[in-house]
Amino acid sequence: MSDIEKSYSPGLATDIEKPIANPGIEPHRIRMTDKSEKHARTAEKQIAVMFGVSVVGAIIAIWGFFAFPIVDGDLSATRNNSLWMGLGMALSMFGIGFGAVHWAKTLMPDNEVSEMRHQARSTDETRAQALEIVKLADGESGFSRRKLIRRTMYGALAFFPIPAIIIFGDLGPVVGDTLKHTMWKSGTRLTKDPTGIPIKASDVTIGSVFHVIPEGLSEMEEHKLEEKAKAAVLLVRVNPSDLNEDPDKADWSYQGIVAYSKICTHVGCPVALYEQHTHHLLCPCHQSTFDLANHCEVIFGPASRPLPQLPIAVDADGYLIAQSDFLEPIGPSFWDIRK
Amino acid sequence: MTNTAEKKPGFVGGAANYLDERLSIGAVLKGFGRKVFPDHWSFMLGEVALYSFVILVLTGTFLTFFYQPSMAEVTYNGSYPPLKGAQMSIAYASSLDISFDIRGGLIMRQIHHWAALLFVAAAGLHMLRVFFTGAFRKPRELNWVVGFLLFLMGMGAGFTGYSLPDDLLSGNGLRIIDGMIKGIPLIGPAFSSGFFGGEFPGTEVVARLYSLHIMILPALIIVLIGVHLMMVIIHKHTHYSGPGRTDENVVGYPLMPVYVAKAGGFFFLVFGVVAAIAATFTINPIWNYGPYDPSPVSAGTQPDWYIGWLDGALRLAPSGWDIAIFDYVIPMGVMTPLIVSLLFLGLVAAYPFIENWVTKDKREHHVLDRPRNAPTRTAIGAAGVTFYAVLWAGASTDLIATNFQMSLNQVLLAMQIMLLAGPAIAYWVAKRACIALQNKDREMVLHGRETGRVVRLPHGEYIEVHETVDKYELWRLIDYKDYQPVMARPDANGKISIGNRIRSAVSKIYFEDRIAPVSKAEYEIAHADHAPEAVTEKPKSKRKSINA
Amino acid sequence: MRRRPWAAGIVVFFGLVLSGGGYAAATNVVQAEGGSQIQVEEGRKLFLANCASCHGTNGEGAIGGPSLIGVGAASVDFQVGTGRMPGQGSGPQLRAKPVQFTQEQISAMAAYVASLAPGPAIPDEEYLRGDGEAEHGGELFRINCAMCHNAVGAGGALTQGKFAPALGGVSPKHVYEAMVTGPQNMPVFNDANLTPEDKKDIITYLKYIEENDSVGGFELGAIGPVAEGLFTWIFGLGFIIAITVWLGAKSN
Fold it and tell me: Cβ–Cβ of C188/A32 closer than 8 Å?
């Protein structure tokens, strides 16, 4: 290290004398293309061929664009267009790339050279001059001296960005209690997803699973997916003797037919996999598993809350209806979910 | 100026003159034209990431002319038969049109997505190279932080990008993100409403992700790449230890013409690889997933690979850890993965500063470490990689179960165990491997290379002939930094602060097991010992150097 | 009145006709698919030889297997027709294996089991041709099937080692029968849930997926981002690193 450069503390580094000194850069190994004009010319030809192949590739890509007009119903045109344009582009790229690199490796000098580094730190002299400039600016502005200016300036700078943050306040509406209510109401019929056809209790045989949406959802023009994201329900019939119900929720089911929210209480994926014999509901995203026969309590996976049950009944025509909305919020838990 | 009869300059000369008279390009060429860059394949990984980013910008620009970020509903009447007549968002419909009804649309979409996967993979591998060779040491600590931010932004750009088609797979990903956001204490539901513009899924989010994806994140990435490369230019690139290489120089080839050709050519090669893959392999077949709807879901729902570790964290988190504070709930199924990931990221970002606090080595470092010569750092890196990898594998528990015919539940349990045990085992194995390799190097320095030739000496002793290494290889084997642990010392008042105690303990973990480089004295003793006839210096042959 | 000797014969003849015809008519009502007596008898013999040890001599169920009363011809045609039955070995779930019987034999056994009690019938050819509406089928498939079988039927995991198999190469008839009978842990999709037209559309969708290669190229198993990520690291980066090693190596 030169004298004017800073010498830094080595910290915990040890400093032992090495057995030999740095031997310097290894001697250059002559390449065939350095020695022999014939080899150099061969390399030149190879490079030229590569660049030529690149031109061919570009032409293939251009041809691919025009040769396969899109025909409705025949996807092979799409496939060919994509394939030939892609391969053409790849070939044109490879040609240039291999050509350029081969040129560098065979014909350009490969003698290693050394360039000296400079310490990142400025020299003491430069630093002194820099410090002088800063002191001058400080003196001329009075920045350090004038406390009143400085402090009020900090205040202004601290406050001016705040409107820029507040102005984003309308990114979304106030949450209110939208998370705690769904479309289900007393008397809402259970209907098939996506058609909205109502379901009769007699349709739901043992071992069946119906994917359910509330009546009226499929006709909605607006907010359809938002409501569906809360109201989607799974409807299943099990043998009543297999159903281990909470005594105060015994009238929420109908002859072994039960309805549970389909929205996973972990992070909201649809818990859609139903295992007919084990009565397990499995969520495919993170594998939370709920035991339908035991009021959907969590038996595996990261969910912490059982799936909420939708109380159901049957109306005069035999169609399944909800008795009311869910009695607890559906979906993932959140801070004030219990309020 | 004297008016001699001069030849009129040609086109290039004229153009160069025109620009120089306005932009001082002469100074630029003079300063940068023969700048030296070292040549090692492992230094090109950052370039792979850079070139992937360029490919992303080029193909992405094409896509912006055809993609429409609207969640308004429309009926599909494009070419793909199984979706004809289906209701879907305009975003999904325009993505289908790009894929099926616009010539060149599908290949550009596929190049774009494959390049995105490559961008983050190359950045990650580059980061690992920088870590394991200690390139983050002074003066490059800040560049490490910039690189770390780039990696995060790459993840963000990828996530916002693949959510744009509003298909079932990415839509379920957004649903998961929403569930996680809602779980954040106090601000969760408000943050969710702000992000989605109301209830999930709303009609705003795709357009907002679009703005992030094509404007905000690319702008940040470009600025950070600029800062990243500026620092490489100021600091010059590091180089591995070797003959002629020191902390005061950089050995390699000049920018013009060698690097212009090699690095420039490499851009085309990377583009070629991505284009070839995109021409022949399907990626993100959105037409298979259908439009997003909160009710259906596909088996095998995973995010793109670089988000995998977060999905794995969600799957591996234990259940039933929810914290209740009076009437309020903190869902730990969400918060545990969030906290663990943030801690992990924090450790990654802070590592250079942690290591520097231990060694207090204030010198500039431009010669890289071979991983074996920094055993504890390598072991920590191995443990970190293992932790990340187990989380990443955790995202595919269901695929592992299906394809290897195992029980989903057992696969998950095994991964939970591996998450805790794996890093510890990886640490121990890596450290011992490094030390073993260092010992081997030491043996080579002191006793040369074993040739396998056994010779019987006149007095009856059998010896194996060792071939001493030549001075170039010898230099590579002895030139590395060595540190020793520090004892906690009392300060002026006779007290040993907690900070000092901790530092001493950590420095012992780092450097207790160290294998010191061979000293001059040791070397001379070892080589004086050998009988002259047993030491042969073979003529230098075309051996591959150690540092290949 | 003089007794004619052949009168008794006529009485016996009419008696036989009445009782035999009556019996035939009665059994015809029970056998909804109209399996003939011979077929049912053939099926019963096969059943006794191959199935009764687990399912009981009259299909009432035994230690090794559940009752088959009411499962219908469709169940037998599916289970035996895909080789799942005769069941072999323990494990969380039966797997499709090489089929051990001819279709004639399978139909016979199906007829026999159908004769035990009414149950889902073997579907009519008109629902299996794949000329329904693929768009409608796709929508239904995604809502009712994709969560287990994957959006394009690549298969998926259930709990404890069970799985929903991949659907490529499965015949339309077996797809229909699986939907309507709910084999093992697959739910039952009766005709009120998914009408025969719905099922026809789903089969049409699956056929379309099977017969049409992806426009993007090779599909890497259609399992999505995991395969794509692995491919990027192994082949994408792998090939590029090979290029960098070549690029940095000294030329000869």
Answer: no
CB contact under 8 A, A270 and C147: yes
Annotated domain spans of chain A: 32-106, 131-157, 185-322
Which residue, among B319, B335, B487, would best test binding to A if mutated, counting the most A CBs under 10 Å from its CB?
B319
**Nearest alpha-carbon partner for A97 in B349, C194, C244, B203:** C244
8 Å CB contact of B408 and A287: yes
Query: B216 and chain A: CB distance < 8 Å anywhere?
Result: no
Helix axes B260-280, B45-64, angle to 10 degrees: 60
**All domains of chain C, ordered by start, with CATH?**
23-120 (1.10.760.10), 123-237 (1.10.760)
Residues of C in contact with B114 (CB under 8 A): 228, 232, 236
> Nearest CA of chain B to the CA of A122: how many Å?
12
pTM of the model as a whole: 0.92
Distance from CA of C249 to the nearest CA of A (A): 8
Rounded to the nearest angstrom, the minimum Cα separation between A323 and chain C is 22
Say if residues C123 and C196 touch (Cβ distance below 8 Å).
Answer: yes
* Contact residues, chain A, for C144 at CB < 8 Å: 211
DSSP A131-191: HHHHHHHHHHHTTTT-HHHHHHHHHHHHHTHHHHHHGGGGGS---TTGGG--S--TTPBEE
| B479 contact A CB<8A | yes
Name the residue of chain B whose CA is nearest to C239's CA: B273
Kindly give the confidence (pLDDT) of every residue in chain A, 339 residues in length, as a single tens digit, with 9 standing for 90 and above: 444 567 888 889 988 888 899 999 988 888 888 888 998 999 999 999 999 999 999 999 999 999 998 888 789 999 999 999 999 999 999 999 999 999 999 999 888 999 999 888 999 999 999 999 999 999 999 999 999 999 999 999 999 999 999 999 999 999 888 899 999 999 999 999 999 999 999 999 999 999 999 999 999 999 999 999 999 999 999 999 999 988 899 899 999 999 999 999 999 999 999 999 999 999 999 999 999 999 999 999 999 999 999 999 999 999 999 999 999 999 999 999 988
List the single residue in C with minimal CA-CA distance to A202: C192
Identify any residues that bridge with A235 across adjacent strands, giving them in sequence order. Answer: A210, A259
CATH, domain A185-322, list 2.102.10.10, 3.30.70.1050, 2.60.40.2310, 3.30.70.20 = 2.102.10.10
Look up residue B425 and give its two tokens.
């085992």
Residue C217 and residue A199: Cβ atoms within 8 Å?
A: no
| Predicted complex ipTM | 0.94
From chain A residues 277-336, the ones with a CB under 8 A of any chain B CB are: 284-288, 298, 300-305, 331-336
Phi, psi of B473 (to 5 degrees): -70, -35
Side chain identity at residue C163, one-letter code = F
